Amino acid sequence: MRRKRSAKIIATLGPGTSTEEMITALFEAGADVFRLNFSHGTQEDHKRRFDIIRSLETRFQRSVGILLDLQGPKLRVGEFKDGEVYLKHGEKFRLDLNPDMGDETRASLPHPEIFKALEPDTDLLLDDGRIRLTVIECGDDFAETKVMIGGTLSDHKGVNVPTAVLDLSSLTEKDLDDLRFGLELGVDWVALSFVQRPEDIAHARKLIAGRAGIMAKLEKPQALEHLDEIINLSDAIMVARGDLGVEVPPEEVPALQKRMVFKCRAAGKPVVIATQMLESMIHSPTPTRAEASDVATAIYDGSDAVMLSGESAVGEFPVEAVTMMDSIIRQVEKDPHYRRMLENYRYAPEATAADAITAAARQVAQTISASVIVTFSSTGSTTLRCARERPVVPILGLTPRADTARRLALVWGVHSVQTEDLKTFRDMVVTATRTAKQEEFADVGDPLVVTAGVPFGTPGATNILRIAWID
Fold it and tell me: What ranges make up the beta strands (E) of 341-461?
């Protein structure tokens, strides 16, 4: 099932999309990677979805990626005597470690790490930023605040501290258990929530030990202070605009999104744009014009993938949402302005043989009007470098490893295929031409460009470029 587009679609599975029929329909509509959101559902629920996704590969003979999205540390207030209270502007409100039920004057906040990070004049955002408190006085177990923006506050609503770095690991006990479970299943990507520091990525990398790709979710302002280091340590980045939009002013989010996308493209790391992309399609069969423009902007910027959350997990029109996203992407990629934008933001290759060969492959493919660029890579590094170039032709990523093929399902322009392990250069050319024809990228007489590293199996050793013809 060859896609007629370069950017990829990630669809989140949930209560409304857990049957074999629905997951198959989402895949046929255009989903390339499926997200298992461990903030919701049981491990048994996710295993059932995982097994169905893996069965798709056998049925459709196409590699499908699976993303495990960890919940991360959720900071929430406790419960109230009547379930909710109304906080009035200008009134005082106390937060403390006392587990007793809250009222109009106080609430439990069972997170001592928050109190340790607070200072007078620190802002606290509650319920996705709908309520804003400013700290007047604080200690190790309490904070006296003034209500700057009031409203109704109910049980277990979230708390954000945008200006403070919390002494808090991005992996909770629940996350560690979910991570062990997901790695045993064989997920392809692990998304880390609420990353604050490069150390969060380093810790996760030790635990994952190469068994899955690491995707850092950028949703904390503190992470932006270490953006280059986090990108360097991660295998991919997700621009998670939900919590990011709570902790920074909304008008800053578009520029931050572009900054993160461009830095990821320069580094050759896949980047995903997520949250509220087609939000209205949770209840409507069509999106708003603004939502369509939002998806299009992410594609014009050269993002590797765009993601559906509630639209496909709990929405009333999940298949229509994937179909619409697919249609928007294809429409953008047909626009001549799209190609001009990619060319304008092309990044100079690094001074390495691998980058020189990859840049040359793009130029050669364009000059001779090749049907496809074929890359051979056991780890995917050759294919990733090719995708960084954003060539005008598709990329056929061949690899002997199933895990690599599945991870590459996320990457811009790549149609990944698992092949036999190759031993000779002649085998490489024969396999490239045969697979390009089988996967409907080329026909008899068509030229294609082949890149690989010799000796085979050496990561980052791309050193061969070959022009071949289909016979």
Answer: 373-376, 395-399, 414-418, 447-453
- pLDDT at site 166: 83
Residue 236, SS3?
Answer: strand
Find tokens 């106080």 and name the residue: 106
Q: Would you state the pLDDT for residue 186? A: 98
- Nearest Cα residue to 165 out of 109, 215, 238, 224: 224
Question: What are the angstrom distances between the C-alpha of 158 and each of 139, 153, 200, 435?
Answer: 21, 10, 21, 50
Architecture of domain 353-469: 3-Layer(aba) Sandwich (3.40)
Q: What is the mean pLDDT of the chain?
A: 94
Q: Which residues are catalytic?
A: 35, 76, 217, 275
Strand 159-160: give its sheet, edge to edge.
106-108, 92-96, 142-149, 131-139, 123-126, 159-160
Token output for 150: 């009031």
E strand or H helix at 238, and its extent? strand 236-240
Q: What is the mean pLDDT of residues 302-311?
A: 97
The string of DSSP codes covering 301-350 is TT-SEEEESHHHHT-S-HHHHHHHHHHHHHHHHHSHHHHHHHHHTPPPPP
User: Per residue in 424-452, pLDDT tens?
Assistant: 888 889 999 999 999 999 999 999 999 98
What pTM value is reported for the model?
0.92
If 0-12 CB within 10 Å is exposed, 13-18 middle and 19+ buried, where does residue 180 land?
exposed
CA dihedral 465, 234, 175, 65 (to 10 degrees): -30
pLDDT at 352: 86
Better-predicted residue by pLDDT, 78 or 346: 78
pLDDT band at 245 (very low <50, low <70, confident <90, very high): confident
What is the CATH code for 8-73+170-335? 3.20.20.60
Angle between helices 253-267 and 289-300 (to 10 degrees): 30
Q: What would the two tokens of residue 183 be?
A: 């790695």
Indicate the helix (H) or strand (E) that contains 249: none
Q: What pLDDT score does 50 carry?
A: 98
Cα–Cα distance, 236 to 238 (Å, whole number): 7
Domain boundaries, the chain: 8-73+170-335, 84-160, 353-469
Q: Domain 84-160 - what CATH class?
A: mainly beta
Contacts of 397 (CB under 8 A, 6+ apart): 375, 377, 380, 383, 386, 405, 408, 411, 414, 415, 416, 417
- Residue 444 · residue 470 · CB < 8 Å: yes
Q: Is 126 helix (H, G, I), strand (E, B) or coil?
A: strand
* Mean pLDDT calculated for residue range 379-388: 94
**Within a 13 Å sphere around the CA of 415, how many CA atoms are in the beta-carbon half?**
22
